[in-house]
Each structure stands twice: as structure tokens, then as C-alpha cells.
Sequence to fold (361 residues):
Amino acid sequence: MSEINENEVRELLSKVRDPATDRDIVGASQVRAIEVSKTSIAVTVDLISPGYPLRHALDASIRGALEPLGRTVTIDYGLRVPRKPPRQDLDRLPTVRNVIAVAAGKGGVGKSTVSVNLALALKQLGANVGLLDADIYGPSIPKMLGPAQREADKSVGGERIVPALYRGIPAMSIDYFVESGRAVIWRGPMIHKLLQQFLEDVDWGDLDYLIIDLPPGTGDAQLSLGQLIPISGGLIVTTPQEVALLDVRKAVDMFARLEIPVLGIVENMSGYECPSCGHHDDIFAAGGGARLAQELGVELFGKLPIDRRVSAGGERGVPVVEADPESEHAKILREVAAKTALETSKRAGTGPRRSSLLRTV
Fold:
């Protein structure tokens, strides 16, 4: 075989385009390493999101580009989640690459359930994830996560708030600082100040994604967060019926006014199948999520049927992606997580990047 060098391999790889972004993988700094021997070529390529759904297509493109060299090709994949640097005056989360807000137009549609399972699914897929409960009046994240590995507290120096820790996921909620069962009766400025403290004073650590569970509606918390930090995108949770969509459209309008892109839609309570006889019933109508996605020009990331295991997991503090990882719901939620992460990275990749942590997946 004729001698080849790393530069020749790199030149061929520069013709390979990431199927998600259409950027060449060399120019996008996704080629981390190249090793050439007389009989083989080993390359390490960084994927732009955990659970990257287009990995097989990228793999085929890389192998096709290197085929003329006549050597065995080995490809290892790492993870490099891009971050679009915000304006300096809005950079309150310098160690967080992307902020994803989970929203719904009204309460009771499963928004917090999706938030918790989204965070855990992203963690399972290899990302570093944090979870912020922004529902000041009705916090539910601590209950859904179960007993903490570490309670939220001040650091030794007293300058930074140490978040609670659940299965490696740092989390913050007003629930950690109020007496159990006591109502939080605050005006807007107090909510703004608390959220600012949760963003600026909490030691979140190095995160690929901070998932924010927004309260229902379009109130003070949403406005404050939109003013305090650049939010990478919003994930909309709805149920299928039209009455739910009426309120969801208001949440979408709020995102538009705050210049927050909608990443995709999740339809919850999407029908019920009797475990005994298999009969399917669309209890809350059908097709609402698909209509909303089409209306907005975004993707319907997933449809979650009604299943008691999902609610039971939240009640027990063991969300379904952890309690029953091979269940239909867990698989759908991991797919939602992968699609959400990919859409976030695609949007972040359109601007300048800040260096990020490299690791193997």
C-alpha cells in the first residue's frame, strides 16, 4: 500500500458533511483525532448531541469518504455539545451550554413529568444535565425525583448555593427553602429576584443542558427568565384536545415575544390502551399535537399514551425512564430527549462556538 498521512485523511474528511447541520465535520471541529498506520485508519469524531439520531448516516459518509484509501477504518465517537455565546451582560450561566425551557399553556398536562424524564433521559444518553424548578407557586420536581443524594445547601464559603443532587443531576427548587406545606405568596419582583439568585448564585457545574420546568401559563417567572438569560429553545407539552391547544398557543406566542424558538412538541395523554383487552380509546381526543406542530412548522417529537406507570413513577420519585427503561414510554421519552438535544445543537451550531468539554460516548 502507498504511504498516506494525516493531512490526506483530513482532506477527505473535509468533504463529509454532518447530516444534521450540513457543515463539513473538519471545518466544524468535529474531527478530534486521526491515526494512520500501514493497514488502518482510526478517527475520533465528536457528535453534536447525545443520542444523535443521524449517527448511521454520518458513519456511512465517513467510511465512504475514506474508502479510496484502501485501509480498514475504525471510528470512535465522542460528544461535543456546541454553545452559542450570549451577550456578555446576559452570560449568567457561563458553565451551561444550553438552556431548554419546558412549557405548557395550562397546568395538569404533564409538563413536570416530561421535564424530569427529559433530564434523566439526557443523562442516560451521556450528557451533563441540570434541572431548575421555576414553578414557584407549585413546585413538584423534588417530589418526582425522590430522595436526594445531596441536599441543597450553602457552600463552605457561603458565597455559592450548592444544588441538591439526584442521580448525578443537580437540581434547584423553591421547595428546598420553604416549610413543607406552606404556600409561597409572592409578588413578581420577589420571583424575579429568586430566579436571578438561582441562576447567578447556584454552583451548577459544567452542564450541556439546564432543563427549566416552567410554571403553567405566561406569567412572571417566564418573563423574568426571558429577560435574565438567553434560552436556547422551548419544548411545548400539550394534550390532544383543542381546549388545551387554545392555551398552548398563548405559550407559543409568549416564546415568540421573548424571541425563544420552539424546538418541538410533545403530546401527552395521547390515548389509552386497556392492558387487559387491548382496546384503544382517545380519551382526550386525537391529533392535537400533530396539528400544532404543523401550524408552527416544527416536529412532533413524541406522543405519550396514558399509562399508570408514568404517574406512579412520579409519585414514588422514580421516573419511568429509570423505573422501567424498556417500556414504551421510556423509549418514547429517550427519543424525545435525543430530538430535543439535536434541535438545540443545530440552532447553537449556527453561530460562533465556545470550547466545550470533550468526552467519549
Summary: Confidence is low (pLDDT under 50) at residues 351-358. The longest helix spans residues 328-348.
